Amino acid sequence: MSDVLNVSEMFGKNVFNDAVMRDRLPKSVYKKLKKTIEDGAELDPSIADVVAHAMKDWAIERGATHYTHWFQPLTGVTAEKHDSFISAPSDGKVIMEFSGKELIKGEPDASSFPSGGLRATFEARGYTVWDCTSPAFLREDAIGVTLCIPTSFCSYKGEALDKKTPLLRSMQAVNEQALRILRLFGNTTAKRVAPSVGAEQEYFLVDREKYLQRKDLIYTGRTLFGAMPPKGQELEDHYFGAIRERIGSYMNDVNKELWKLGVPAKTQHNEVAPAQHELAPIYEGVNQAVDHNQIVMETLKKVAGRHGMACLLHEKPFAGVNGSGKHDNWSLTGDDGTNLLNPGDTPHENIQFLLVLACIIKAVDIHADLLRESASDVGNDHRLGANEAPPAIISIFLGEQLEDVIDQLCSTGEATHSKQGGTLKTGVDILPDLDKDATDRNRTSPFAFTGNKFEFRMVGSSDSIASPNTVLNTIVAEAFKEAADMLEKAEDFDMAVHDFIKETLAAHKRIIFNGNGYSDEWVAEAERRGLPNIRSMVDAIPALTTDKAVKLFEAFGVFTKAELESRSEVEYENYSKAINIEARTMYDMASKSIIPAVIKYTTQLASSIAAVKGVCQEADVSTQTELLIETSKLLAEIKTALARLLEVTEKAAAAEGGKVQALVYHSQVVPAMEALRAPVDQLEMIVDKELWPMPSYGDLIFEV
N or C of the chain: less Cβ packing under 10 Å? Predict the structure, then answer.
């Protein structure tokens, strides 16, 4: 059948992957490039021209006319500048060329991207540098076919101006230290240890025509006003429900686009909130996973437009229903197949696993503030701690089996057994018995062990996963180093590693919590344990520049102090800019659309009262009168709140930049926005729907 989709043939067809390189490159060049990709060896510049020529020919054969260095600046999205393959015309003709120099290095304007003071406006030179460990790919869209080359982005002085460069540095750090751990246990076969990641991407879909009638969605990605419809998510009928045809057709096209680009899209389903969905890939190396997640987000948005929809990646596009996150599933895997986070059937006997686990627990406890900061953004402030996502308190869920092993070690000094899962019997004869896992799952935990990996559930749906994984890699590298430094010198390794595991777990056990992370009791208990409860992005940012953080990142060459300070400044600026846009959008919508609509409604009420009374003095117009009084009262509240919002927004805009300005936006503008929203949402439930100037929540989340 010609219409049968052959995924095997389609997968990776637009990727300059290993199979293509092996086929098109001379053996000697292929081997040198492969050594860099697999072993982390320094790239041999002499092969660049050969690779560039092969890459260009492959791309042109598939219709490409342009190439771009595809990079990830501190904007949180990708950036690109397109250059065609044509060379200078001669005799009225051009030839298509692409050199090794053009492959390896690009030169965008570094002053036009966020740099947090690392680059001044007059200091424009910056470089993009080819990352050969993430394969080039072809993007097909209305522009045509473009060869996209993943690159790092740095300043003229070598400072990282992007998300990828620190990630690659952190991968080097954790690889070096993880190998030391493996060597302690006699593993001489593994040459590299790399983080593996799978990012579960949540998103909303709404009808595009309705989306275009909401200025708040257009400008900010979320609704700034909106009353809840009679039905929300309380029936729990959307989660894993049957996928509607319009959505299914969209998902089908998304999968095709992603598979062609080598993105291993695996799982798709309806999420908890109406109009909310999820896409999850198969796990892969963290560098490629980060790039692929950017491709996923871009593809979700692009394909939505083709289907007459808009894709919302904001963490909280609708108040009153669940927001969207991006669960970051992280593990460490050696090139010999060793998963450092595999406990085996008897984890109490798996000393290597227990050492790795103890180091990770220590790392998360010591650097909980950094891990929390890595998941901070403006949208996530609306999601974390709202009984739909993890709380803002970092804790680790291990489950009954591992918690029991740790309790044995800490209380008696020995772990003698591991709880087993047993057999699940349904009581139905025709259904087979199932082997149960040794522990349940906990969806309220921000950092949960799920069998052979940790799931960091705090990350926001619109965020790059580069920063959380950079932090994870680095803090674990530090813990591994401290363990290896001590154990490599031990005269009695078995005794030393046993004591180290026991002492480390005892010292950092406070971070382990297997209960309900949504409960108020946990907030109080976490405070008693001394765990930080960092409720907002503005409160989280200072973690980047503490002495502890600077020492950590400089020790492993991941960030310099200047780079950390610049990122701190960029995040404060991003927060202020985002809240400023939201506040001014609210002001614009309220003054130009909502107030005129309410005035029109009150005028109709007044006219109705006058008309009825004019015909019949005895007629009961109490309903109209009460509505008029209530509506007029709320209208006055809007006017007062609007004036206050304008006042504090102008005050914040005039404040000194950086942290000072962000604090004004957080402490004064955000409450003023909430004060304006309250009467508007009440009026939406009163004013004639025909007069209300924008689609309602019901229109948006149930009519798609």
Answer: N
